[in-house]
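Today's session is about reading a structure prediction critically. Students often jump straight to the picture, but the first step is always the sequence itself: look for stretches that repeat, for charged clusters, for runs of hydrophobic residues. Only then move on to the predicted structure, which in these notes is written as discrete structure tokens rather than atom positions. Here is the chain we will use throughout the hour.
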Amino acid sequence: MKAFTTLLLRSLITDDDSEPQGIELLRNKIKQFDYTIEEASRQTLKPKQAVDPRGVRWWNDECSAAHTLAHTASTHEEKRKANKALRNTVAHAKCTWAHEQLHHATNSKDIWRLAKTRKGRTTNSFSALRDATNTLVDKPDQKSVIFQQKFFPAEPCHTEPSQHDDPPPFTMRTWDKITSDEVTKALATTSPSSAPGPSGVGYVTLKWAHAARPEVLTNIFNLCIDHGTHLWKLAIVVVINKPHKPDYSIPKAYRLISLLECVRKILEKIVARQINTDIESFGILPMTQFGSRPHHNAIDAVATLVHCIQATRMSGNVGTLLLFDISGFFDNINPLHTDETF
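Below is the predicted structure for this chain, in token form.
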């Protein structure tokens, strides 16, 4: 860490009057920050090595003996038999070790820890998917097209920014500049094991960079606020199958997880915190709004619903409950309408 931060202190520079202004300034700042992080990591950090099969916990003396025989076989037939015996020995060792681990597991953490025993991660696969013509396709590029058509509509429905039933607009409020302390607090609540985005830069690296030069990330975030956008638009989309589905050939049986850039999530966390502060200070949302608000949770929503049901029954009236499950709600929100309403 010391060598990493020392290199960052020499490489990360502050503002220069000769630099371009506007969105180009933001693009150059992000490009310089990414390049410095990449170079500092390459020069000071050890690259991640592939896991040696003989170093895993299920490897035993029988595996070592079978491995030696496979490498010392002289003839082609002996090598073929030795390799087959090695594969069988390794499979038996894995099965025996996993059975013992599950047999002696004391809590759920011991069971979930088994998912990381093979090269640090599990290998997930899913079956063939049906396209628009009800034809089964198995190639990854064809599957990606099906998921894209299902979860990422190319042309969302057009909506006017202003609607006739919109509530009256609130008074315009000023947006305070992001401080380095806010960035530090946002980084302090992150997990070092969170999966990074396309750049591979995780929260640990961002913490080191911010500790070395607190003003760099702070200036980049404030430039994003001033221009009303950020440039971390790419993400890694991971497909995870939903459990207990009858048919895994349809896209609805899967859930898509987007691995965003960690630096982007830090900016969004700071912005969300300031928005929540405005919501509480100016009473923008009613008390019955429970989602995505501090000090509000699902238990409060259920308690409110139960109270309304009991009050309706006690008064001798009949109540009706209407629940909505909107598919792709957040994916189809019009940002212009949201900005106009907020």
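Discussion point for the tutorial: The longest strand covers residues 236-241.
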